[in-house]
Amino acid sequence: MFKLFRRLLQSIFCVVFLVVVGGGQVAPLITNISGRHSTSLDGPWHAIVDPYDTGAFDYHGRPLTDHSAFFKNHKPESKSELVEYDFDSSATLQVPGDWNTQRESLLFYEGSVWYERSFDYARPAGRRLFLHFDAANYLATVYLNGEELGRHEGGFTPFDFEVTDRVRPRNNFVVVRVDNTRRADQVPAVLTDWWNYGGITRPVTLVDVPETFVQDYFIQLEKGSTRRINGWLQLNGPQLQQKVTIRIPEAGLSKTFQTNSKGRGEFSFDADLTLWSPENPKLYDVAIASESEEVADRMGFRSIEVRRTKILLNGKPIFLRGINLHEEAPLRPGRAWSEDDARTLLSWAKDLGCNFVRLAHYPHSEAMLRMADQMGIMVWGEVPVYWVIEWENPAALRNAETQLSEMMTRDHNRASLIIYSVANETPISGARNTFLERLIQDAHSSDPTRLVSAALQAHEGVEGNHITMRISDPVASDLDVVGINEYIGWYSHLPADADTAEWKSDYVKPLIMSEFGGDALFGYHGDALTRWTEEYQESFYQHQITMLKRIPFLSGTAPWVLKDFRSPRRMLPHFEDYFNRKGLITDHGEKKKAFFVLREYYREQQAREAH
Ligand code: GCB
Question: Which of 150, 160, 365, 532 is the 20 to 30 A CA-CA neighbour of 411?
């Protein structure tokens, strides 16, 4: 009896706690925001930098719920009332944008910043409204008109909240607390070799949809086919059983089907399409029309498969001439996010001779994927399961799975995206293997049309007078393509030692050398054995290429990295100054000598493929 009473009290406490503290949920993710009716909330937002989380907790660490909580955006009601914060007179930060490069004092800042902006919105009757964030790094807690909508964890994927019944015609205010504190139980955890840019780093929009709307859809060529489309669609709202039509006017296609009582419809039909490829990145206008809504998209169609050690695009073997990219703006400091940023970065990759980019080490913006679609560049998309994660923590696994699913939901109609990567350089252990296997399984089951990979490491040894590299990571047995990062000649040995390195794999699978590289300070010259010179980096690439040409199961390369990028781990004065200098191009756009070595190799590869 007493036990029962205690349990009852506990449940009451839980409910009260949830009501008081909030704990709202993000809504199911809406795909293709640019194809909807939407209003941008980008621009200057008021911002309060709050290193001690004063806006969230009182002096004894208890969550604030009264007027002193910053999300209340409270104004003193009398001349005597004490209110120790004020958004209106606080300086602004641009959204989208990281805070680190908007104010000198915030360059190294890690902690909370409160953002606020107001807006008016006349919602037409019968429409639903969602507040959509393309990304905020890392933990975002979102409030509207003084009430919590919910929170989202993960710095690089989109999320939204339904605000239909909460928005009023005038004087709404959104408050977002963004906290980029690094913590061991997060994904990524505490160690990364990139800048922890904080803030609302990508666009924010109000998305206006009908009561029943097309939440998501997946329209792809069936695995192994270049002539048959397969897919599904998901409605959200009260009228789940509807007639839905997929139209591709240029190809003379119009297919109608019915959704079931859960709002899901599946379809499959023949389609005679010009296939998407780097040589001809053909995109079609696709209309997805339910009885209540029409969503417009631009999509390419291609197949991607693996046969033994080869990667096949549209049924033909292809070598991935790639480069790694961080999401840093090309010619100004800070995070990249815009279409122009994407165009410049991908043009540099094209200039290098690439047909492929590895978007390291987290999902880049949707603008990047759409630009890759347009420019004909294949993409490796990755989740930030980087170095060390709490492998045994179920919450960390759930977090990684959610980030993977959010990336896939956003990008699963992009032709350019051919590979999902679930991890980078993670140390082998039973718990880590189980964690990664789960992610690999998730990726395969929710999208059987794409390839799944991970950037692993080979076992390095020495036999006689040469280096041996053996690919034996047990996780590779579940992957379609094996990615290997190696730094022979930079972190171990000297560049020339790569010439005779012997590669062996325990798996009959394609290999992508997903990283190799060395640092060079642009304009610093010397002989090829002097660290930090352009000549060292140039010679490093020459020897790597000698080695790569001898690996029979190699199907692609993505050296590290296109552009010098900021990293707090790189402190050496003069040469690094908080930059990783493995770029082939500087942060100002200058090309280093090694750029031309790689370009030559890629030109040869391309010529070989053309014959
Ligand atoms: C790696 C990591 C990458 C680093 C790079 C380096 O293996 O995957 O994130 O930035 O090496 O420069 O050491």
Answer: 150
The pLDDT assigned to 432 comes to: 98
* Residue where one domain finishes, among candidates 185, 210, 235: 210
Pocket of ligand 1 (CB under 6 A): 193, 361, 424-425, 485, 515, 560, 580, 582
Residue that finishes a domain, picked among 159, 186, 210: 210
CB atoms within 10 A of CB 77: 9
Q: At residue 192, what is the residue type? A: T
Same domain, 231 and 361: no
Nearest to 365 by CA among 182, 149, 133: 133
End-to-end CA distance of the chain: 82
Residue pointed to by tokens 């902690």: 111
**pLDDT given at position 24:** 57
In the predicted model, residues of the chain with pLDDT beneath 70 are 1-25
Structure confidence at residue 214 (pLDDT): 98
Contact 142, 112 (CB under 8 A): no
- Among residues 323, 361, 309, 358, the alpha carbon closest in space to that of 511 is found at 309
Reply yes or no: is the peptide bond before residue 37 cis, omega within 30 of 0.
no
Residue nearest to atom 3 of ligand 1 (CA): 193
Domain extent at residue 119: 2-210
Q: What are phi and psi of 157, to 5 degrees?
A: -125, 155
- Length of the chain as a residue count: 611
User: Do 270 and 313 reside in the same domain of the chain?
Assistant: no
**HEC per residue, 383-396:** CCCECCCCCCCHHH
Please report the pLDDT score of residue 27 as a whole number.
Answer: 83
pLDDT at 2: 42
Q: What is the pTM of this model?
A: 0.95
pLDDT at 391: 98
**Residue recorded with tokens 């998305």:** 207
Instruction: Please provide residue 482's backbone torsions phi and psi, each rounded to the nearest 5 degrees.
Output: -95, 125
CA distance 405 to 423: 14
Please tell me the predicted confidence (pLDDT) of residue 4.
Answer: 43
Residue located via tokens 């630009």? 371
Q: For atom 13 of ligand 1, which residue has the closest CA?
A: 193
- Pocket test of ligand 1: the residue of 425, 426, 515 to mutate, having most ligand atoms within 8 Å of its CB, is 515
DSSP 546-564: HHHTT-TTEEEE--S-SB-
Specify the residue for token string 């977002």. Answer: 176
- 606 residue type, one letter: Q
